[in-house]
Every structure is written in structure tokens, then in C-alpha cells.
Amino acid sequence: MTGGSPVRAPSRPRAAWHAVAAIVRSLGRRPSPAVAGVVVGALLTAVAVVFASSGQTGPSSNTSVAASGTRVVEVSLVGMRIRPGTVEVAPGARVVLRVTNRDGMRHDLRLASGQATSMLDPGESATLTVPSVRGTVEGWCTVPGHRAAGMTMQIKTVGGHTGHEGHAGRAPSMPSMGHRAVGPGPIDFMGSMSAGWRPYDAALKPAPGGRVHRVELRASERGLEVAPGVRQTMWTFGGTVPGPVLRGRVGDVFVITLVNDGAMGHGIDFHAGTLAPDVPMRTIRPGERLTYRFTAGRAGAWLYHCSTMPMLQHIANGMYGAVIIDPPGLSRVDREYVLVQGELYLGVPGSAGQVAKMAGGRPDGWMFNGTASGYDRAPLTARAGDRVRVWVVDAGPSSGTAFHVVGAQFDTLYKEGAYLLRRGDPGGAQILDLAPGQGGFVETVVPEAGRYPFVDHDMRHGEAGAHGILKVTR
Ligand SMILES: [Cu+2]
Q1: Do residues 11 and 125 make contact, with C-beta atoms less than 8 angstroms apart?
Q2: Residue 281 C-alpha to ligand 1 middle, in angstroms?
Q3: Which residues of 390-415 are buried (b: 16+ CB within 10 A; e: fewer)?
Q4: Is residue 328 reached through a cis peptide bond, with omega within 30 degrees of 0 on the bond before it?
């Protein structure tokens, strides 16, 4: 209808991603198609009037009432919010929204009454005109996940014909089935994986030779089996959850090329290096690429993850991985594995139902290397008497882990860059505890043949997918 053409504003605001602590609050609401149709139909009669005047220059104040009942409102898209969140007008008022993207990433504004801006770059503006407001008109950003993260607004009618408003106005804000949680029901963690499923390879290879590691990572959305018999669209680095494990030594240089093959903006953040985040951690659009160069100055088991807001969603939907930087003098072992623990949220990625579970800390399951209970079906292996090292990184995004191997004791425990316990010490350890974003490793010598479960000893997690088997043979 009256989507305005973008206009470049003079300033280009910087990203303020750290200021967005309150990302996930409101549930996206969508009017039922029938109600939206009524609203659009009512507006069609007035649309001819609109074309003549959309794109006009309005007053500089945030909102004003022009002659003949037109209301002009300055609308900002910033910090995962649409401001103002509510615009109140008299029934039948003509509303002009002068929309400016003041954020560091792309957004748009779509109204349930049909008007929509194009996708706006940072600093761009566009004008929307609603010829005659009846009831409540919902608005939201259409970038995946942004509506569920709180990028919503309402144009509400107040005063005047309140009876009419009540009739037509409340219905659009009722949640529709399309935005409810659409889970397949409880996951059968004891079930079988599909025939074509292959586990993520947990075996950690030695660091490649050379001191400069050039890696291309492609961001893409993929359908993956995340629990026995359960497929889910995941947002990935390299088509897997977690993304590829990178390994090097202290002082090595990593030159990462991130290519966005996805349908939305993505970025990347490597904890394994220190640098100003502004440029390398920026969000790139589909089809774009960036180069991210860091020096691994310190040893550790480091997380990398998508840097695009809302990070809660981008991480929870699978965009994370591990960088292993060996401590100097790291001893050889017989078996070496890496496990990245993450939460599992079923549902359409970015939908209100899925995001509500993320915000409320109610995962549908927990995964080692992208599949709940996957290593129950495809055990890790060792021989009796082997020294086994397991690197663990907790990708969260929200829950920690209490990593434990049933039947084993750790004689070596390394966490966040330091040994808490070393081989030869008289003491032993039972748990490697990690907060979201932390990493480390443990070592144990498995004494005899058998099946040793490894779990997150927080049993809410351990009995909901954070579980696998280390199968030890003679
Ligand atoms: Cu992302």
C-alpha cells in the first residue's frame, strides 16, 4: 500500500548491542487473518488520499497533529525496540509514521493494516501512512526473531467511539496459533536416531602445523536431527551444531572468513582473541563476507558464537563452536574428545513460542555437540587403561554444566586457563563446572571395560539429553 522509499539520514548511529539487556520480553502478537482482512478492507477506501501526501516533510518534534486530523509521529527502531511503543490517536485519524532505523543493524516496520517499509539500513528512514485508524493496529519488525524479542508497537484509538473501538480493536492483539509454541511434544530421549543420522565427530585432532590458520566459516540455516527422531531448523556455522572446532597453540594467528549464506544477518565473536569488537563482530547481510583476524594470546577452551542481536536466539538456535588453544607443555593422551554443551529449543526459530522458552529458561532439552542423547546412540570409545581427555565448552546460552563421567575420577582438571588439579596430585575431582561461555578439560584413566555414561550432573539436564556413553573395551 504506502510503503515509503528509504531516505538516507545524515547520521549513522553505532551499534549499542551491550545496551540491549532487556531483549526478550514481550510475545509477538499477530492478528488473525480474518481481522487483518477487515482492517485492510476498511483502509482501502481511503488509500487514494494517501498517495498524494506520503513522504511529506513533517515537523521535527516527536509527534504532532497537523491540520485536518493528521498525526505525524517520529518512530525509532533501536535496541530491539520500536519507540514509541504505543501511539494513541482518535478513531479515524490519519497517522503518518516517520520511521528511522537508529540501530547498528537492519530493521523494518510492518503494520497489520498492510503498510510496510523496506528493509532499512542503519540511519535510513521511510514514511508510512495509515489513512484512517480503526481499533488497534499492531506493528513489528520482520527480521526473524525481532518481533518475538520485543520489536513491536501499537497504534491505538482512544476516545470518540469507544464502543466501536472495543469491538474492532481488541481482536488483533489476541495471539494466534501461528505464534504459539508448536513443539512435537515431549522428546523421547531413549528413542532411536533416524537411519541417516551421523553424530558430530567428537574426536579432537591435533593442531594443524603452521602458526597461521585460515578458516572459512559459512553461516547457514539447516534442518538437523537434534534429538532422537526430532528435526529442527538450526542456525549454523558450517552446517553443523556446534560449528567446526578450531585448534592451535598460544601465539597462533587465526584468519577467519565469515560468509553469510543464511537468510538473515549474522556475525561472529571469538573469545579466543582480544580486539575492538566494533568492526570484526559486526553483523553482515546475506551474501556478504567479513574477515576476522585474531591472535590466540592465551591457552584455554574458548567459545565462539554469533554476535548478532538477539544473541540469545542466535546462540540458542545453534550458532556456536569451540576454539582449543593448547596450554604449553600439554601432555599426550590416548584419546581426546571435545563436547560443546548447548540448550535445545524446539519450534520455529525466532517464533514467539520458542523465544518465550528461551527467555524463561525452559529448554526442551540439552545437547552435547548438537544432539540430545546422541552419544547414547553413537558412543565415544576408549580401551581399558587409556588416558582420556575431554574438553568441554558450555555454549549455554543460559544454563551451566556440571560435567561428570560415571564410574571415573578426574586426576587432571583445567578450567578457564588454569589447572585446578594435575596428574600426580593426591586429590581427585568429580565435576568440571562451567558457567555459560566457559571451557576447560578433564583427564581420567578408565580402569576397565564397560559403558561409562558422561552427563551434566544437573539431572534436569542429564536426564533431558545432556547424556552420552564412553564405551571402553579391552
Ligand atoms: Cu547469527
Answers
A1: no
A2: 11
A3: bbbbbbbbebbbbbbbebbebbbbbb
A4: no
Distance 147 CA to ligand 1 centre (A): 16
Name the residues around ion ligand 1, CB cutoff 5 A.
Answer: 266, 306, 308, 314, 319
Q: Give residue 178 CA to ligand 1 midpoint distance, Å.
A: 23
The answer for residues whose C-beta is within 8 angstroms of residue 400's C-beta and 6 or more apart is 394, 433, 434, 435, 436, 438, 458
- Taking only the tens place, the pLDDT of each residue in 373-400 is 999 999 999 999 999 999 999 999 999 9
Domains and CATH numbers, the chain: 7-177 (2.60.40.420), 212-473 (2.60.40.420)
- The string of pLDDT tens digits covering residues 68-126 is 679 999 999 998 899 999 999 999 999 999 999 999 889 999 999 999 999 999 999 99
**Bridge partner list, 76:** 83, 100
Taken in order 367, 242, 17, 143, the sign of the CA dihedral is negative
Q: What is the pTM of this model?
A: 0.75
If DSSP states are collapsed to H, E and C, what string results for 9-47? CCCCCCCCHHHCCCCCCCCCCCCCHHHHHHHHHHHHCCH
Give the number of other Cβ atoms within 10 Å of residue 188's Cβ: 13
What is the 266 CA–ligand 1 centroid distance (Å)?
4
Question: Ligand 1 centre and the CA of 308: distance in Å?
Answer: 5
Q: How far is the CA of 219 from the centre of ligand 1 (A)?
A: 8
Q: How many Å lie between the centroid of ligand 1 and the Cα of residue 267?
A: 6
As given in the structure block, the three cell numbers for residue 420 are 585446578
Nearest CA-CA partner of 227 in 43, 468, 412: 468
